[in-house]
Every structure is written in structure tokens, then in C-alpha cells.
Amino acid sequence: MFEATRINHKNLSRQNMFRLLLGGMTALLILPVILVLGTLIYKGAPVISFEFLFANPTNGMTAGGIFPALLGTILLVIVALLASVPLGVAAAIYLSEYAPDNWFTRAINIAIINLAGVPSIVHALFGLGAFVIFFRFGTSILAASLTLAIMTLPVVIVATRESLQAVPMAFREACWNMGATRWQTIRRIVLPNAVTGILTGVILEVSRTAGETAPIMFTGAVFFLPFLPQGVFDQTMALSLHLFVVSTQVPEMPEAVPYGVALVLIALVLLMNSVSIALRMYLRGKKKW
Amino acid sequence: MVNPEMQFEVQDTTQNPVKLGVENLSIKYGSETALEGVSFNIHEHEIFGIIGPANAGKTSFLKAINRMDMFNPEMQVNGKLEFSGHDISKVRNVYGLRRRIGVVFPLPVGLPLSVYDNVALAPRLVGEKDKAELNVIVERCLRRAALWDEVKDRLDSLGSMLSGGQQQRLTIARALSQDPELLMLDEFSIAVDPVTTMRIEDVLKELKSEMTIILVTNLVQQARRLADRTAFFLDGKCLDVGITEDLFTGDVSNQRTRDYVEGRFG
Ligand SMILES: Nc1ncnc2c1ncn2[C@@H]1O[C@H](COP(=O)(O)OP(=O)(O)O)[C@@H](O)[C@H]1O
Ligand SMILES: [Mg+2]
Vertex A157, ends A152 and A163: CA angle to 5°? Predict the structure, then answer.
């Protein structure tokens, strides 16, 4: 009664074949990740020490630590976040909650998506022209961070807009029907329920800028500084640029140092990502509908 | 045949002052007409039923009263709607108008707030901050919506976690917290169990002494049980309006109305 017919056999073998194929592809994807991380840890871990993280570089950067670069990258990301988050969230709120749905709004939305595809070197030159020269910020943390902020603005807007639109329309209508203004509705119902998505999306996107090199190279990051930046109008070192320098520009660099710098950079980005993911899991547990 | 009990209950609400005057009202979405040439008066302390099949224009009618066309550029309202004698198209403070009108939707909308905050929202929107005052309002509205006993021990739990029937009563409590002069219910029993439906119907009968109620319903028998007067909407037109019992006893001008209330289509 339950004997397998020929067609059953065929289906079964086909099913096994595809499972193998899809599994193989996945393995192929994971492989590079493991190789990269493995190499970095294997070759870079030995140089990581308290001194490596918290001391100034010495001896033409071949010895000592990377503290100015580590601090610089953290500063650049924080100032970029401070600029892009309020601006991007405000723009997203306007676009999704206020703007009429007409060709103009749609054109702006398309422009924003396209802006996300602009190569970072183009942003770099824009930042040089706009912030360094026109606004006279000079090559500084401020100019570099604003360049990074402009670069991340589109993804901040898109992430925010998606979180806002995930809040059901019925909630807004219920509020409007009670005599709430648009702003009261946004403030009391929409934003509190979108904030998880906004926060995690933004951290995830912006943490990626920690690794950017081109946009900060012309606008505020330098190869070497003998002192720490004292304010946003100072130049700074940064991990990404430092990695470039120690890998290519300094003769007699101990082989392990670039790996160590790369490891610290990746760890920093992964740390920010895991904060974002942890936050998301924590807040999702409190999801309200 | 006239039900003697019914006859005893019927009182002539048309003697009451007019709460909502509707004159030659038409509603369009783009070029499509949703409602055309509707005229009647709704009187104070009356439960005014609106019956009719899907897409008759019932929901659009309620939206026009609450000026929801403001949020939908497609929606155009023509003709005259007078709320307590004021032309609502000329009302400057539409937020004030909406606060005088409570709305209950077909599917309960428990806002993602606690039970307490759901009911306290409307007073808070107009600046009420006094905790003691809010406590009084919340308890009063939940009691009137016949929900207090079920939720009094968990006012802090999420409104959206209540059962469907409880959420619908929460929605009613929220509408009552606006202290409305007009309460509009749009097919409130569609997602509610029969027991809760009966409880809400009892609530409405009591509320009638304090406010005017528009009851849009997909159940003709519900209109018969509750409404003093009833209008029959079909395909964007109001085919009949009158004392509810007249619609059911055949004293109507329109054959379609008789067919609908007797269940021959719908
Ligand atoms: N937002 C809208 N946009 C376009 N057409 C609509 C919209 N809402 C309702 N309509 C149309 O208006 C007519 C009446 O709908 P509605 O008022 O919802 O009727 P009912 O509540 O009696 O089912 C329908 O033909 C419907 O397709
Ligand atoms: Mg409807």
C-alpha cells in the first residue's frame, strides 16, 4: 500500500540533490568569513595588548599602540551619528507622515534611494568642497564627520521610514478620530512604536562608516598626529586610514601590526552591531501588538 | 403585525432638536461616487441606525461627519453637514469637532498602550495631567463600557492583549472618554462574540439618554432592536429613512428596502 512508486523515488532523489546544492552554496558563503576572521585572529591577536590599544604609536608607527586612531574613529562615528540621526529621522518623519503622496514626494524618495548608491569617493570630494573649503571647517573631525553623516543620511532615512510605516495605519486613524493632531499622533503612538526599528537600523548602518577611508581622508583624518585631538576642529587619526598606512606606507613594519589594527577595527564594528542586535531583541520582547 | 412591547418603547425622537443635519450630501473618491444626494436629520438622544449591504457608502458617511476627508486627498465631500447647527465644512477647529464625536470601528483598535493609557489618551490630548482626575475618568468610562470588572486588576497590561470583545469595549470606553455628544459605531459587532454584542447593545441603550448615537450595522435585526429611526443605504443612495418599525412592517416607499430587511439580498 505504501510502496514507493517510481515518481516517489524521483522526487526523493531530487529533494536530496537540492538540499545538498543549497547547503553547499551556504557553506561557500560562510567560508570566506571564517577565513578572513581566522587569519585576522591568528595573525593579529598576538599584538593585541593593553599597550597596543591605549598607547601612542612610537618609532615611526612601527611600535607602541594605536590609541589616537581608535579614539579618532570612535569620535568620527559619534559626531556623524549626532549629525545624521536628528536630520535623517526628521526628514523621514516628514516624508512618511506629512508629505502629500504626489510626484514630488515620490521623486524625493527615489533621489534618496539613489543617493545611497553614490560611491564614497564622490562623497569625499563633496565633503572637501562643502565642509572643508566652503564652510571653512578646514580638515577637521567636524568636516569628516559631516561627510560621513551625508553619506549615511539616505540609509538613516530609509531605515526610519520603514520603521514608521510598520506602525499600522489603524492606530493613526484611531488617534485622528479622537481629535489628535498629526504631531500628537506621531509623538504618542507612532514614534514610541517605531523607535526600536529606528535605533537598531541606524546603529547597524552607521557602524559601517567606522570602516570608511575615502570620505575622511581628504576631510579630516591624517596619517600621524603626535597629540590627541582637543576639539571637533582638530584633525584626527582614524583606524581605517591607519590600517592603510601601516599596510602600505611604512617600510620595516612588523608583519603582525596591520593584522592587529584590522582586528581592532572589525571588533569595533562587530561590537556596535551586537549592541544593535541585543537592543533589538530586548525591545522586540516588549513589542506591543 | 405590530409587536405591542415594541410599540410601548417607541417614542417620537423627531420632536428632539436636530443634532446632525444632512443636506444633499455627496461623497466622491476621485471620480468614483460613494454616496449621492443624501438628506435627513438626526435628532438628539436618538439611536439612528444605518443599514445596507457592503459598499453602500455607510463608512464614507461616518468619515465625512468626522472630517476624515482631511487625511485623504482623494475624498471629496459636497453638500451640507450641520453639527448642532454649525456647518462642519466651515469649522475652523476640526480637532474640537472630532473630540465631540466618538468613533468605534468595525475591528477593535486597541492602541499599543496600557488599558489605562488607552482610556486616558483623549483627556491627555487636551492637556489633562491631574492623576486623580484621570483615575476618575478612566474608571467611569470603563464602567460605562461594561469592562471595568474584567480589567480593573490589570489596568497596566497592554490594551492590545485583551480579547476581541474586550478590546471593542475598550474602544467604546476610549470614545466615551472624549465625553462625546455624538457616538458613531461602524459595524461594531463584526469581530465580537454574541454575548459581548448583547452587553454592548445594553450599554448603548443606556448611553442614549446622554448622547446621540449613529449605529451603522450589518445586522438588520440589531437596527430593529436598538434604533429609533433607521436609514437604508444601497449603492451610494439613501433609499429610505424613517421610524425603524415602519421599515420592518412594510410601511416603506421602496421595494428594495423591504427585500433587504426581509433578507432577500444583502
Ligand atoms: N479610501 C477609498 N478610496 C477609494 N474608494 C473608496 C475608499 N473608501 C471607500 N471607497 C469606495 O466607496 C464606496 C463606499 O464604500 P464604504 O463607504 O466603505 O461602504 P460601506 O461602509 O457601506 O461598505 C465603495 O464603492 C468603495 O469602493
Ligand atoms: Mg463599511
Answer: 125
- B51: Cβ below 6 Å to ligand 1? no
User: What total of structural domains would you count in chain A?
Assistant: 2
B63 lines ligand 1 (CB under 6 A): no
Contact assignment for B98 to A177 by CB distance below 8 Å? yes
Nearest C-alpha neighbor of A201 from the set A268, A152, A145, A156: A156
CA of B53 to the centre of ligand 2 (A): 9
What is d(CA A248, CA A263) in angstroms, rounded to the nearest whole number? Answer: 17
CA A259 – ligand 2 centroid, Å: 65
Nearest to B219 by CA among B263, B184, B254, B155: B263
**Selected residue of B109, B115, B179, B185 to mutate for chain A interface (largest A Cβ count, 10 A):** B109
The ipTM value here is 0.89
Q: What is the pLDDT of residues A170-209, one digit of tens each?
A: 999 999 999 999 999 999 999 998 988 888 888 777 777 8
Residues of chain A below pLDDT 70: 286-289
Is the residue at A1 inside a domain? no
B217 lines ligand 1 (CB under 6 A): no
Nearest CB to B96 within list A174, A179, A188: A179
| Cα atoms in the 13 Å half-sphere on the side-chain side of A125 | 4
In this structure, the number of other CB atoms found within 10 A of the CB of residue B255 comes to 10
> Across the interface, do B112 and A171 touch by the CB < 8 Å criterion?
yes
Closest residue in B to A287 (Cα–Cα): B112
Task: Give A15's contacts (C-beta < 8 A, 6+ positions apart).
Answer: none
- Let me know whether A195 and A67 are in one domain: yes
Q: How far is CA A227 from the centre of its chain?
A: 27
Nearest to B155 by CA among A282, A25, B166, B1: B166
- Structural domain that includes position A35: 6-47
Residue of B nearest to A100 (CA): B73
- Reading the block at residue B190, the C-alpha cell is 463584526
Domain B4-100+180-261 - what CATH class?
alpha beta
Q: Residue B8 above 80 pLDDT? A: no
From B60, B219, B220, give the residue whose CB has the most ligand 1 atoms within 8 Å, as the site to mutate: B60
Can you tell me whether residue B154 is helix, strand or coil? Answer: coil
Cβ–Cβ below 8 Å for A170 and B107: yes
Q: How many residues does chain B have?
A: 266
What tens digit of pLDDT does each residue of B146-183 get? 999 999 999 999 988 899 999 999 999 999 999 999 99
Establish whether residue B253 lines the binding site of ligand 1, counting it when its CB lies within 6 angstroms of any ligand atom.
no
Residue identified by cell 451640507 is B80
Shared domain check, A32 and A171:
no
Residue type, B17: P
